[in-house]
């Protein structure tokens, strides 16, 4: 099973106050993330979409507590520049700026930041991101786009099945709508 999360901000004490997180201290916040990872089924793949940790020490401490049966894929976020990922490679399955995956014929683009368009958005691919916090200015998603920041997911990873359900209520991407209209206009055939 695939799971998605972002914006843990491990080792960043200020994230609790500044982002109004419901934790007394860093230890309590990080214990919550560890507990939630240990609750994932064996063989799970966890995709973390950026701002994982404030520094190398905090991430290494956390990764030593990660269950061995969880595959971990990290996407860089704007605060991950303080982390030396070279010394942590043994804990991580992949590390990317942006990643495209496919699950059950559904193409999904993973990036820390929300985008206006992404790979195959004109063909109804999805984009999962983080970066936007509860304290951020309001953001309206575009098409099949979902923010998996822990502040919006009860501090738990979101399963692919949950993403599927959430995407059902989202509008199609404007590019996709336009391509459908153009195809019908040019062919007279409505295959959508």
3D shape: elongated
The count of domains is 1
Number of helices: 5
Distance between the termini: 29 Å
Mean of all residue-level pLDDT scores: 92
The level-1 CATH class: Alpha Beta
Nearest-angstrom radius of gyration? Answer: 18 Å
* Amount of beta strand: 15-25%
CATH topology: Purple Acid Phosphatase, chain A, domain 2
- Low-confidence runs (pLDDT<50, min 5 residues)? none
| Oligomeric state of shown chains | single chain
Report on the architecture of this protein.
- The strands form 2 sheets. A 5-stranded mixed sheet has the order 4-3-2-1-9. Strands 5-6-7-8 form a 4-stranded mixed sheet, covered by helices on one side.
- The chain is elongated, with a radius of gyration of 18 Å.
- The chain has a single domain (2-97, 128-170), classed as Metallo-dependent phosphatases (Purple Acid Phosphatase, chain A, domain 2, 4-Layer Sandwich), CATH 3.60.21.
- A hairpin with a 2-residue loop joins strand 5 and strand 6.
- It is built from 5 helices and 9 strands, in the order βααβαβββββββαα.
- The chain is α/β, with parallel strands linked by helices and 192 residues long.
- It has helices at 14-18, 26-38, 56-63, 160-168, 174-187, and strands at residues 2-5, 45-48, 71-75, 94-96, 98-103, 106-111, 126-129, 145-147, 158-159.
């Amino acid at each position: 099973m695939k799971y998605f999360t972002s914006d843990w901000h491990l080792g960043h004490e200020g994230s609790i106050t500044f982002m109004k997180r419901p934790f007394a201290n860093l230890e309590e916040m990080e214990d919550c993330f560890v507990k939630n990872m240990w609750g994932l089924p064996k063989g799970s793949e966890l995709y973390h979409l950026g701002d994982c940790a404030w520094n190398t020490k905090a991430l290494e401490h956390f990764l030593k507590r990660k269950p061995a049966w969880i595959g971990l894929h990290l996407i860089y976020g704007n605060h991950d520049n303080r982390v030396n990922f070279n010394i942590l490679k043994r804990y991580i399955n992949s590390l990317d700026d942006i990643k495209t995956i496919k699950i059950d014929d559904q193409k999904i683009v993973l990036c820390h930041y929300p985008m206006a368009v992404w790979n195959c958005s004109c063909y109804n691919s999805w984009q999962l991101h983080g970066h936007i916090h509860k304290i951020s200015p309001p953001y309206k998603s575009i098409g099949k786009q979902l923010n998996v920041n822990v502040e919006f997911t009860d501090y738990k990873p979101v399963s692919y099945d949950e993403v599927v359900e959430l995407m059902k209520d989202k509008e199609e991407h404007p590019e996709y709508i336009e391509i459908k209209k153009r195809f019908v206009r040019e062919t007279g055939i409505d295959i959508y």
